[in-house]
């Protein structure tokens, strides 16, 4: 079975296997006060411990909430859980709301942006000091950018069915997910055109840095044709040190080896900083990456880790378990930041990426054309006549290539609809065709047009919509049993953190050294 057509036919003959697809969502959102300014309050105790509550934590900044669902077999289930978590949190925020935009609210001076705190345990301090390092390396404003992460896994039975190469199921699974990632890398520019929703930012975000952005108004800046400033070099981007790291998705061994190399190799600028200042930790180490998760990418191969286990070691030992899509902007029109239509499109797109032919990237896994396409679309995706470079090194219009991809998605949408008893996947793909026909239908264009029509600044618009979403959530209280379950989980998580702190016996310095030793060299791991 060597062609995507043959693999697709096999799936069409076995539609029930698609019922085993799981998806989970991690949605970030800043806590802000009534004026839309970054909240300066600690993580609320009423929603539990940021260290140990599995559904409600923080990401980089103390005010950056991260709300996490379980993996679910149906889109309706995962969205309901996400809505329930949002509703519980909204009811516990005192005079605060969740900022429902990817680009931040009004930020204070950088020194006054609080870094996430997880308590005084060694585990909590490791998370906190890692974030101190991120602040030193990239600046605190970038730690206030928010997004939606979409976790996606396929049932184990699909890999032999698709005849994925590998000596055992673990190898088949890893090779299958890496093939998915290669295709995602080729085609993810389309996601940024269709779903990018951060074409503007508040001038305050730049904190005086020079820029060549256009003014929408005195407080709001844009690139005229941008889809996602969050995913541009104004938002999440890899600095010079990370630019040296070219991860390879051709095979897992090479991927893990390059990740290991970056996590143990010092970088001169970080060596100048050192690990301590005035007797306090400012970063975990002086390496290109403090830990593997520091590498910014639009998609990651993932494996659930055990306590103190390093992500690269987990991948080397047990292979890829699922993938994490990281390039999605918050949908400002949804109270939970992502819509059902977007989820159904993503499932279809990721299944397409799994089954389509996925040749290895040349030149040691470096995919410059794909990276250029992605960067072009986030900065000027709605520019009339925009041209991209396809896999045949041909120049092709965004609209023509986009239609070709969407038409290729339709058979996969039909398969998912057949398996799950819905028409939602087909409708989701068809809805995107309208955005290709008319760029004004894209979320980025609609947000810009709304600002221009109303005269609202980005800040005022985002605050208005965030308040409306907050009220929508509060208008639909949780059933008593769900509310009680969240209350119990919050209370239990606080006690769990206390227990962890009480159990720690070793010094933090020894703990960090032991954590560093847990990164096993791949050649040792594979011997």
From TrEMBL:
Name the domain of life. Bacteria
Q: Name one GO cellular component term.
A: cytosol
Q: Which GO BP terms, alphabetically?
A: glutathione biosynthetic process
Pathway given in the UniProt record: Sulfur metabolism; glutathione biosynthesis; glutathione from L-cysteine and L-glutamate: step 1/2
Q: What class of enzyme is it?
A: ligase
Belongs to which family?
Belongs to the glutamate--cysteine ligase type 1 family. Type 1 subfamily.
Full protein name = Glutamate--cysteine ligase
Q: Which organism is it from?
A: Alcaligenes pakistanensis
């Amino acid at each position: 079975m060597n062609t995507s057509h043959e693999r697709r036919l096999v799936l069409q003959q076995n539609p029930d296997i698609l019922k085993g697809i799981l998806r989970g969502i991690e949605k970030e959102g800043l806590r802000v006060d009534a004026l839309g300014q970054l909240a300066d309050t600690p993580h609320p105790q009423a929603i539990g411990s940021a260290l140990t509550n599995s559904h409600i934590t923080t990401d980089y900044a103390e005010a950056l909430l991260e709300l996490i669902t379980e993996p679910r077999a149906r889109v309706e289930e995962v969205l309901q859980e996400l809505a329930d978590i949002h509703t519980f949190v909204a009811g516990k925020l005192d005079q605060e709301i969740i900022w429902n935009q990817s680009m931040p609210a009004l930020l204070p001076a950088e020194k006054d942006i609080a870094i996430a705190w997880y308590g005084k345990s060694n585990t909590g301090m490791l998370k906190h000091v890692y974030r101190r390092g991120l602040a030193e390396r990239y600046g605190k404003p970038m730690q206030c950018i928010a997004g939606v992460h979409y976790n996606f896994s396929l049932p184990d039975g699909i890999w032999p069915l698709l005849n994925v190469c590998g000596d055992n199921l673990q190898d088949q699974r890893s090779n299958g997910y890496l093939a998915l990632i290669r295709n995602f890398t080729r085609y993810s520019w389309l996601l940024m055109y269709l779903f990018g929703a951060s074409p503007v930012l508040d001038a305050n975000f730049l904190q005086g840095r020079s820029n060549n952005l256009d003014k929408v108004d005195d407080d709001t800046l844009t690139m005229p044709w941008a889809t996602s400033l969050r995913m541009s070099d104004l938002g999440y981007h890899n600095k010079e040190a990370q630019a040296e790291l070219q991860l390879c998705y051709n095979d897992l061994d090479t991927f893990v080896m390059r990740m290991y190399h970056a996590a143990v190799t010092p970088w001169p600028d970080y060596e100048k900083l050192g690990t301590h200042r005035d007797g306090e930790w400012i970063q975990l180490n002086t390496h290109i990456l403090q830990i593997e998760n520091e590498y910014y990418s639009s998609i990651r191969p993932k494996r659930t880790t055990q306590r103190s286990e390093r992500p690269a070691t987990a991948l080397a030992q047990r292979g890829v378990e699922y993938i994490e899509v990281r390039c999605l902007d918050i949908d400002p029109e949804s109270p939970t930041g992502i819509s059902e239509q977007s989820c159904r499109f993503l499932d279809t797109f990721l299944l397409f990426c799994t089954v389509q032919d996925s040749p290895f990237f040349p030149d040691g896994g470096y995919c410059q054309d794909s990276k250029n396409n992605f960067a072009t679309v986030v900065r000027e995706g709605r520019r009339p006549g925009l041209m991209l470079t396809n896999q045949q090194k041909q120049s092709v219009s965004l609209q023509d290539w986009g239609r070709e991809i969407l038409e290729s998605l339709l058979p996969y949408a039909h398969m998912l609809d057949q398996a799950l008893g819905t028409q939602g996947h087909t409708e989701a793909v068809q809805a995107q065709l309208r955005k290709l026909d008319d760029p004004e239908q894209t979320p980025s264009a609609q947000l810009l047009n709304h600002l221009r029509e109303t005269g609202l600044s980005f800040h005022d618009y985002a605050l208005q919509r965030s308040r409306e979403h907050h009220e929508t959530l509060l208008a639909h209280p949780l059933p008593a049993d769900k509310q009680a379950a969240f209350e119990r989980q919050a209370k239990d998580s606080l006690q769990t953190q206390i227990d962890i702190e009480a159990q720690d016996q070793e010094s933090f310095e020894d703990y960090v050294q032991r954590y560093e030793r847990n990164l096993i060299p791949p050649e040792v791991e594979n011997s």
